[in-house]
Amino acid sequence: MSRTDGGPLACPSARAEPGNLLYGRVQDGEVQRLGTPLPVTPEFVEAISSHGPPERRFRFTGTCQEGRCAQWTGRGCGVIERVLDEMRLPEAPAPLPRCAIRADCRWYAQRGGTACAACTFVVTDKRQAVTADQG
Q1: How far is CA 120 from the centre of its chain?
Q2: 3-state secondary structure of 105
Q3: What is the pLDDT of residues 41-99, one digit of tens each?
Q4: Is residue 42 assigned to a domain?
């Protein structure tokens, strides 16, 4: 699926990679969206990676890879489907949270406003941090 203008949709749970955009910060288990997404540079990735996986603390967006992604079900993104199955949110939450990527978002295109309500609670990397003494 692509946008109405023919461009590719955006993955709202991409990795911290140069060329992607930073669009949220994880705070108290929820994503606080930035008003304007910021470009991810190699220097930024290097700086934030020194404190563990960036996806544990930030949310990034990049081009949806569809069939090249392990989360692709053949018809859509499996991440949002699993999240919505677990959360059991109402179908039409209102008002939708402010979001700079909604017009291009794979999850919104796939599941509408319900995906937006769940998106706030999706942390891309929830692995436990490994400390030096656990190592």
Answers
A1: 9
A2: strand
A3: 999 999 999 989 999 999 999 999 999 999 999 999 999 999 999 987 766 667 888 89
A4: yes
Q: Looking at 18-112, which runs of residues are DSSP E strands? A: 21-27, 30-39, 58-63
- Beta-ladder partners of 14: 60
Residues 42, 2, 33, 70, CA torsion sign: negative
Tally of domains in the chain:
1
Residue 71 structural domain = 10-119
Q: Is the alpha carbon torsion for 14, 20, 26, 30 positive or negative?
A: negative
C-alpha closest to that of 104 among 65, 64, 58, 76: 64
Cβ–Cβ under 8 Å, residues 60 and 20: yes
